[in-house]
Write a structure and sequence with these properties.
Blueprint: H1 6-9, H2 22-33, E1 40-44, H3 51-63, H4 77-84, E2 90-94, H5 101-108, E3 121-126, H6 133-144, E4 150-156, H7 164-167, E5 171-174, H8 180-193, E6 197-198, H9 200-210, H10 214-228, E7 231-232, H11 234-241, H12 247-257, H13 261-272, H14 278-298, H15 304-312, H16 315-331, H17 338-352, E8 376-379, E9 396-399, E10 407-410, E11 416-418, H18 425-435, E12 447-449, H19 461-470, H20 478-498, H21 506-512, H22 538-544, H23 550-556, E13 558-563, E14 566-572, H24 581-594, E15 604-610, H25 617-638, H26 640-649
Parallel strand pairs: 1-4, 1-5, 2-3, 3-4, 6-7, 14-15
Antiparallel strand pairs: 8-9, 8-12, 9-10, 10-11, 13-14
Helix pairs in contact: 3-4, 5-6, 8-9, 9-10, 9-11, 12-13, 13-17, 14-15, 14-16, 16-17, 19-20, 22-25
């Protein structure tokens, strides 16, 4: 067979030809030129980074007929025989196949004899960590004090398994993984010399698949040439590797940003036609998120798509996507199929994506279970079979999602009473039917889930528990009527907290505005002209301008005033690191665009770093938020329905659970 694989054909024959190991090469070159030679060298590193290659080059440098040199000639008989692997004084030993102590002793028996042809007798022991403990013990004494004509070159991918007694007797060099650009450049050089057409984009997946190993990269290149013929293109390389174009990752991110679950599933379906490695695709997705995060932090990127995404995806969302995806990749091996784990990873990202408006789920008619919708639900599990245990309350009061803020009433028979008051005829009819069932309180445990974004009323579950205990008879007793009244109060309190129920006094107007707050903190303030900006109204101006991300963080920690055609922004020094050149230009561009109608299209900005400011917009926002929380707390405390729950049931209001948005 005349063909020689690329990994052997293009193996470096001198220190100058080494790729990615300049530090090791420099140290060995200096040692050879100064004649400061050690008797034992240990080369460590992952597979395919040049451990045995460097050992062979060092052997040539020691035995070149022109003398000990860092530049072996490669033409003398010693150099040629070492390259061909048949030099009599270079013993290459595979420790994985010669692990017994007898093999080591046989090897050491010949150490005392001088070299046959060369200047040094070189022992190259590959995968030395595979030797047994007895073999290491037999080697130690010779390794520490070998004859002057012997040099040991040890190579291993797992130096942690070597005894410290061996490590201390060797001069150790750790060979680094190859960087992808280094692999791409080297492959491009080889293909050019081999007269094979290629595109540089086609080499990127090969360099990535090599995972830092040049030998693996050359093996993949051999496979790619056989697969693609005499022209290497990106599509054929991706097909060979089972990879996909990174454009799919961009499409996935766009679908997530748009809350488009259907579009997301369509993209994954298109990807599945190429039978991709879903673990590899998840790695590409994580790499994309990392590139966007770096672009946001540094303010620059060579990829225009990355730069654009860095301006549209918020840093908080990006970090959430990355953390969820990273955890999902760890869990993918446990999924029934890699694609299922891959799909669930992105559905989880959609589910936990902040500031989303979830679509209204289809109404389901389910027996013996409560259908939940939105963030808040108060459910009681029932059984319509009289021979089984159940509860008297098969109707579930639910707070709707934030987009419509409705109260849903779902009966156990699947009937849905939407937007009906708690004391309606439908409600009472369902209550009366359920009262005819025999109740087993021991096996019926109500499930109470409290609102995530409203005040939590602890001990409210006592309402339903008391209702279950009292409603034992078929007829409605006065005690049961009181229990129903308390249940009505529970629903009313839930409506009050969510802004649905009208209450008396000014409390009604203030509570109703809380569930759906305005995007602006100060909606009552009129738009400020740029010429009127000063320290006193700067926080209003920030609230009106469409600046987000790091830009708004800088502005919230600043004060500004207008002088002539110049807007001077004094910001705290702690946010100076956010102000990259790109961010400065972005803030100036958005401010100019916002005030264009006022003649601010030529407005100039000057950023001044200061150590302290009187009261920043951020501090004013925090102060206003605390005041609004206190006001909401007082309003809830004064409401008659809430007061009744506190008085009769000992309920309390958790102030920390009050959320205004």
């Amino acid at each position: 067979m005349s063909y020689q694989v690329l990994a052997r054909k293009w193996r470096p024959k001198s220190f100058e030809e080494l790729v990615g190991q300049k530090q090791t090469a420099k140290a060995l070159i200096n040692a050879l030129e100064s004649q400061r030679l050690h008797h034992a060298y240990l080369f460590t590193g992952t597979r395919g980074v040049g451990k045995t290659t460097i050992a062979r080059i060092l052997s040539k440098s020691l035995n070149c007929e022109k003398g000990i040199t860092s530049h072996p000639c490669g033409e003398c008989s010693s150099c040629i025989e070492i390259d061909q692997g048949n030099f009599v004084d270079l013993m290459e030993i595979d420790a994985a196949s010669k692990t017994k102590v007898e093999d080591t002793r046989e090897l050491l028996d010949n150490v005392q004899y001088r070299p046959t042809r060369g200047r040094y007798k070189v022992y190259l022991i590959d995968e030395v960590h595979m030797l047994s403990g007895h073999s290491f013990n037999a080697l130690l004494k010779t390794l520490e004090e070998p004859p002057p004509h012997v040099v040991f070159l040890l190579a291993t991918t797992d130096p942690q398994k070597l005894p410290v007694t061996v490590l201390s007797r060797c001069l150790q060099f750790h060979l680094k993984r190859m960087e992808q650009p280094q692999i791409v450049d080297h492959l491009a050089m080889i293909l050019t010399e081999e007269n094979i057409e290629f595109t540089k984009e086609a080499l990127l997946p090969i360099a990535k698949g090599a995972d830092g190993s040049m030998r693996d990269a050359l093996s993949l290149l051999d496979q790619a040439i056989a697969f693609s013929g005499e022209k290497l293109e990106l599509s054929s390389i991706l097909e060979m590797l089972g990879s996909i174009d990174q454009s799919y990752c961009f499409q996935i991110l766009a679908a997530i940003q748009q809350d488009d679950a259907t579009g997301l599933m369509d993209i994954i379906q298109q990807m599945s036609q190429y039978s991709p490695d879903y673990f590899e695709v998840m790695s590409d997705w994580l790499s994309l998120l990392h590139s966007i995060a770096v672009a946001q932090a540094t303010g620059n990127s060579e990829d225009n798509q990355i730069t654009e995404l860095a301006q549209t995806v918020s840093p908080a969302d990006l970090q959430l996507y990355y953390q969820l995806s990273l955890q999902a990749k760890k869990d993918m091996p446990f999924a029934p199929h890699p694609r299922q784990g891959f799909e669930m990873a992105f559905l989880r990202v959609l589910a936990f994506r902040p500031n989303k408006t979830p679509g209204k789920p289809a109404k389901k008619k389910l027996a013996n279970t409560a259908v939940s919708e939105g963030n808040t639900k108060t459910a009681t599990h029932t059984d319509n079979n009289p021979t089984h245990a159940g509860t008297d309350s098969d109707v579930v009061a639910e707070q709707g999602n934030q987009s419509d803020n409705k109260i849903r009433l779902v009966a156990s028979n699947g009937e849905d009473f939407e937007n009906q008051p708690a004391n309606s005829a439908s409600w009472q009819a369902t209550q009366n039917n359920n009262q005819a069932l025999k109740m087993d309180i021991k096996t019926s445990e109500p499930l109470i889930e409290y609102p995530a974004k409203t005040a939590v009323l602890s001990s409210v579950d006592q309402v339903i528990n008391e209702q279950i205990i009292n409603e034992q008879a078929k007829s409605v007793s006065p005690a049961e009527k009181r229990s129903e009244t308390k249940a009505d109060n529970l629903i009313t309190a839930s409506k009050i907290a969510s802004g649905e129920a009208p209450v008396s006094g000014s409390f009604s107007n203030e509570i109703e505005s809380q569930p759906v707050p305005d995007k602006r903190l100060y909606p009552e303030v009129e738009r400020i002209a740029f010429a009127q900006i000063n320290f006193d109204n700067w926080h209003y101006a920030i609230d009106q301008m469409p600046i987000a991300g790091n830009g708004v963080q800088v502005l919230l920690n600043s004060l500004a005033c207008f002088e002539g055609n110049l807007l001077k922004i004094s910001h705290l020094s702690k946010v100076t690191h956010f102000l990259t050149d790109n961010l400065r230009q972005s803030i100036q561009l958005q401010i100019r665009e916002y005030f264009a109608d006022d003649g601010g299209d030529k407005l100039a900005l000057e950023f001044i770093s200061v150590d302290a400011l009187p009261e920043t917009p951020k501090q004013k926002q925090i102060k206003k938020y605390e005041e609004d929380i206190e006001k909401a707390y007082q309003n809830l405390t004064e409401d008659p329905c809430v007061a009744q729950l506190q008085r009769e049931l000992g309920a309390t209001i958790d102030k920390q659970s009050i959320c205004l948005n």
